[in-house]
UniProtKB/TrEMBL annotation:
MF annotations from Gene Ontology: ATP binding; ATPase-coupled monoatomic cation transmembrane transporter activity; metal ion binding; P-type ion transporter activity
Protein name (record): SPF1
PANTHER family linked to this entry: CATION-TRANSPORTING ATPASE-RELATED, ENDOPLASMIC RETICULUM TRANSMEMBRANE HELIX TRANSLOCASE
A GO cellular component entry from the record: endoplasmic reticulum membrane
Length: 133
């Protein structure tokens, strides 16, 4: 979706694609990403002379976009389904099914309980790590 924003009397036209902003350049009649200082191969002295951005932060936010990165945290069941189709988990459940066909049903049910408990603990640990950041 193309967006138009009027700022300080000038119209800025842009769109976002895959979280990357593309600005309309009226003189060239093309959309391109905003130019950054590092795109122009600056010298070390340019960075040493820099005093930071003393200009309008609102203008810079509109030009470059917000400096944030949002990673959605999956639910417990989404992560558990991901773990449940892992090859090792599938192999272990298959072995439990084979042991159930034999006369080791006490051992196999206990083993199934332990396998599911270990996977649930791993999922909780992943969720805790994801929420930490």
């Amino acid at each position: 979706e193309i967006q138009r924003v009027t700022e300080a009397g000038s119209l800025q036209t842009f769109f976002q694609f895959q979280k990357k902003r593309f600005l309309w350049h009226e003189d060239e009649q093309v959309f391109s990403s905003p130019k950054f200082l590092v795109d122009e191969s600056p010298k070390v002295g340019d960075f040493q002379k820099s005093k930071g951005h003393s200009g309008d932060l609102t203008h810079l936010r509109r030009l470059y976009g917000e400096n944030s990165f949002d990673i959605p945290i999956p639910t417990f069941m989404e992560l558990f389904k991901e773990h449940a189709v892992a090859p090792l988990f599938v192999f272990q459940v298959f072995c439990v099914a084979l042991w159930l066909l034999d006369e080791f049903w006490y051992y196999s049910l206990f083993n199934l309980f332990m396998i599911i408990s270990m996977e649930a603990a791993a999922v909780f640990q992943r969720l805790t790590a994801l929420k930490e950041f």
